[in-house]
TrEMBL record:
Cited Gene3D superfamilies: ABC transporter type 1, transmembrane domain, P-loop containing nucleotide triphosphate hydrolases
SMART domains: AAA (SM00382)
GO MF annotation: an example: ABC-type oligopeptide transporter activity
PANTHER family according to UniProt: ATP-BINDING CASSETTE SUB-FAMILY B MEMBER 10, MITOCHONDRIAL, ATP-DEPENDENT PERMEASE MDL1, MITOCHONDRIAL
Keyword Transport included in the entry's annotation: yes
Name this polypeptide is given: ATP-binding cassette subfamily B protein
Keywords on record: ATP-binding, Cell inner membrane, Cell membrane, Membrane, Nucleotide-binding, Transmembrane, Transmembrane helix, Transport
Family to which this protein belongs: Belongs to the ABC transporter superfamily. Siderophore-Fe(3+) uptake transporter (SIUT) (TC 3.A.1.21) family.
Amino acid sequence: MTESGGGTAPGGTTGSASTAPWRLLLGRVRPHRRVLLLGGVLSLVSSLAGLAMPLLAKLVVDAFGREQSLAGPVLGLTAAVVVGAAVGALGRYVLERMGEGIVFSARRTLVERMLRLRVSEVDRLKPGDLLSRVTSDTTLLRAVFTDGIVESVGAVFMLVGAVVMMAFMDGVLLLITLAVLVLVGGLVGLVMPRIQKASVQAQESVGEMGAVLDRVLQAFRTVKASGAEDREIAVVGAAAREARDRGIAVAWWTSIAGISAWVAAQLAFVAVLGVGGARVASGALEVSSLIAFLLYLFYLVAPVGQLVQGATQVQSGLAAVKRIREIEDLPTEEAAGEIPAPGTAPAGVTFESVAFRYGDDRPAVHQDVSFTVPAGGMTALVGPSGAGKSTVFALLERFYDHQEGTVAVDGRDIRRWPLAELRAALGYVEQDAPVLDGSLRENLLFAAPGVAEGELRRVLALTRLEDLVARLPEGLDTEVGHRGIRLSGGERQRVAIARALLRRPRLLLLDEATSQLDAVNELRLREVIAEVARETTVLVIAHRLSTVTGADRIVVMEAGRVRAVGTHDELLAEDDLYRELAATQFLISS
Ligand SMILES: Nc1ncnc2c1ncn2[C@@H]1O[C@H](COP(=O)(O)OP(=O)(O)OP(=O)(O)O)[C@@H](O)[C@H]1O
């Protein structure tokens, strides 16, 4: 798997999309081959015990005929039953354990890769579909090992063993049996690709259902306010119906495979009974051998059924492994590893002739953007909606890589910073300041779990959150809910600032909320920003007049370019767009 280095654009694939799915499946088994071997040996012993039974039954019949003692054969038969059952159970347990281990490692790698995916990749994917790959597809993978491979290992031994024993009994009857087996194999082989295709489609539909559900849950209030429940129920229902139809197709082809095996087994019985009876009548075969042969044939039915069942399970597993692999092959960011302490000195920023577009087929968002943010103090980015302000932050965090020019933090090209070190030096507060499910303390310590209580208190005071903590029923340990619903917009933004500050950033990137704040919260936010700007560099995307008037310098962006730089008074005097923005856009003024 390609992992990018710090100096290159993160990304790369192994090109394994073209690898046959069964190879991918085998690749997952390979690390567990010893356990597989142990499970195989146990299954073999159990199968051998099973295979000995008809032979021992023949000895019992022969002993009756020859009026010999029955003790030996009966004792042997009993031992075969007990050993076969015990060893068989142990073998199954060992193999199922291996299956669980494979699923566990698939889930773990999948989750790890998902969290390391590049932002640009996640932009393209649907969260619900990703979720279904971690949960539903890995569950299918589990079924492959528990019901598919585990059953099949024993079945293959049973099948081969039974055929070998049959060869000892009678060659003619064996030929009849083999002809039937080849027929079954051919039929099943024809059906398998259809099962795999339908399985892929079924899983895609489940993924689609997850994606649609996720969309609804993300915008739950909007769905309700828009009266769109019925329409959305219909959309989710359509995806569910599609999943059902694909599942029915899988069931249809599985039944065809199963019934073919069953009919073939009946035909084999009739043929062996007819031909075998004739051979007994002609004296070419002993009755006890025909009985033993029929018992072996009887033994064949279950393994053939299991193999067909196992093969169909493996088909859905192949579909799942393909979908899992698609995620594993996506370009990821470099792993974090050990990062040196980034220091606390305020860091400056330079953009020099930066050009950027979100995709080759997208319009340019930044064209020749150049500006400087000196270390320390507050710089505001302003401009009409869509000017490319948030993109400045996204480039600084290296969520995306710019195509031309240079972006430097603390005088060092960001492509030359190890990614984790760069991000540790930056504090990033998103505009809608997400609050995570959990307590207020968990939310605050999210970016810096090891922070001392004293530092936490200091930042709480700095961000004017002490009143909030005092008001909450359980203080810092109060659950602030899945979306922080117990916090107001202003409080949420200050919690997000505190979260970023606890990481001791050298540069705070603050995308100011556009939502209306009450006068108290507005004042508090202004105080907080001003105070933070004394400790570190603050680059703020400003939506409030109160913020820009307090800024040391303002960068005005328009349509992906920097139009002017200056203080509020300078820009009011010199720049038409800024004057217009000040008059119309910054309505959220105190
Ligand atoms: N993830 C993305 N993928 C593709 N295009 C994007 C993405 N994010 C932003 N854009 C596009 O880039 C352009 C600039 O967006 P950006 O968010 O940087 O503007 P902005 O100045 O911050 O605007 P606003 O003040 O409205 O947030 C917009 O045209 C937007 O559609």
